[in-house]
Amino acid sequence: MSRRNTARVADILSSRSGEEMSLNERFLNPQMGRILRTLGFDKVWKGGEGAHLIDSDGERYLDLFGGYGVFAIGRNHPEAIAAIEEVMQARTGNLPQLGVTLLSGVLAEQLLERSPASVGAMVPANTGTEAVEAAIKIARAATGRPRVLYAEHAFHGLTLGSLSINGNDEFRAGFGPFLPGCDPVAFGDLGGLERQLAAGDVAALVLEPIQGKGVNLPPDGYLQCAQKLCRDAGTLFVCDEVQTGIGRTGRFLALEHWSLEPDMICLSKALSGGLVPIGAVLVSRAAFDGVFDGMERAVRHGSTFGGNDLAAAAALATLRVLDGEQLVARAKSSGELLLELTAPLTERFEIVREVRGLGLMWAIEFGPPAGGAGRRLWETVERRQPGLFSQLITVPLFHDHRIFCQVAGHHMNVIKALPALTIEEDEIRRFAAALEETIAAAERYPAALARFGFRTGLRMAGLRR
Asked: How far is CA 261 from the centre of its chain?
C-alpha cells in the first residue's frame, strides 16, 4: 500500500509505533537491527527526559550512552525546546545565504567569550566531522602546507577528510585511498611528533584532549609540549573538542585543564542540547584572515545549513542552561564521585585493569584473569570475538538494572559512560552499585559466558526463524 500521503508526525508516532525495527530492516541498516536483537537492546523508545530513556512500557532506563554525548543538558530540556519554538514563532529570515543573521553572530560572540584568547572567529558547521573537515581545509589554506598529523586511535569523524585522520582501522577499512599527507603519531609521543614536524611541511596537528575511543587521557605535560612544538614549527595546533567540550569534563572546554591556547577548536555534539545538528570551528584571527583574505574569497568555504537560526537558538539555550544550572561545576563534582565509587573496583576484581575519566567522561577497562584456566578461556573467546567480555557487563546492566551503556570502541574491553551532566547523585550511586554486582557475576567467567551465550543464543535462534 502506498504511503505517499503521509500522516502528520503525531499521527505517525501513535499509529505506527512498533514498526521501528521492521522499517530499519527494510530501508535503513538491517545489520544494526541484528546487533540490537542479539543483545536484547531492541526496545521501542517512547520518550526521553533528563538522564533517562523511557520505553514503550513506561520503564525508565538510566542513559549512560547519551547519544554519543550529545545530551549533556539532558534529553528534551524544556529551555532548549522553547528556544526552537521561539524561532519558529518569530518566522526569522533564516539562511539568507547572501546575507548575515543575528543568532549565529551572537552564538559566535558567546562561544569566543568562553574560549582562549587564541581564537577570534567562528566558522559554522552542522556536525563534528564537518567541523574537522573545515579545520583541515583552513589549516592547509592558511599555512600553504600539505600535511596533517593526527594521533593513533583518534576518532575525528567518518566523512572522507575526517576519516583520513581517524586512527582506527575498523572505520577506515575499504574506504581508501584517503587524503594524501595525513600521517599518524602515537598519542603521547613527543619525540615522534618532533621528528614529523622537522620537515617543515605540516599544516596542522589535530588532537582530542582526551581520546573519545577508550577515554584515553594524555600523559602529563604532553598537550602543552605538543602545542609548543607546533608553535615552533609554524604548525597550527587544533583541539577536537567535539566530545570533550561543552562542560563534559568539568570545564567548559577540556583544553582548560592544561591551559592550552590552540589555533582552532572543533565543537559539536552537546552544543545544541541534542536537538538540532550543529558544529563550529573557533579559529585564530590569523588563520581565519589567511583563508578569507579578500572579497572574492569570502565564500571559499561554507555549508548550506551552517549557522541556521534553529541550531543557533538551541545552542544559545544550551549555554544558558549550563550557566543557570551550574552544570560545568556539577560535571566536575559528579565525575569525582563516580571515580571515587568505581576506582576501588581495580583492587577488588583482578579482571578490572583500570578505571579512568575526567568529569563525566568515564571508562572502565577489563583484562584477562591471572589464573591459568580462566586466562586460557578468556584468550580463546577473545580470539573468536574480541571485546566479548564487555558485553558480559553491558547486557546484564541493561536487562537487570535498566542502565544503558556500551563499549568504548570496536574490539575493546572498555565500557564508557557519557551521562547527562544533570544526572543525580543517587543515580551515580545506583550505577556504581549495579556495576560492582555485575562485575562480580561476570568474574565467574565460565558461568557468566554460559548465561550470556544462552540469552543471545535464544535471540539468534529467533532471528534465524
From this structure: 22
pLDDT of residue 240: 98
Question: In the chain, which residues have pLDDT < 50?
Answer: 1, 454, 457-465
DSSP E strand boundaries for 81-199 = 121-125, 147-151, 182-185
The CATH code of the domain at 78-324 is 3.40.640.10
- pLDDT value for 213: 92
Could you tell me which residues come within 8 angstroms of residue 394 by beta carbon, excluding any fewer than 6 positions away?
Answer: 39, 405, 406, 407, 415
For the chain, what's the residue count?
465
Locus of grid cell 549555554: 319
Kindly state the cell numbers that stand for 276. Answer: 538540532
Q: How far is CA 139 from CA 46, 68, 112, 275, in A?
A: 43, 27, 19, 30
- Which residues make Cβ contacts (< 8 Å) with residue 63, sequence separation at least 6? 48, 51, 52, 53, 71, 75, 404, 419, 420
For the chain, domain boundaries: 78-324
Q: Residue 299 CA to chain centroid, in angstroms?
A: 29
Nearest to 182 by CA among 198, 199, 162: 162
State pLDDT tens for residues 223-279. 999 999 999 999 999 999 999 999 999 999 999 999 999 999 999 999 999 999 999
Coil, strand or helix at 365: strand
* Pairing mode, strands 45-49 and 352-358: unpaired
pLDDT of 440 reads 92
Determine the pLDDT at residue 397.
96
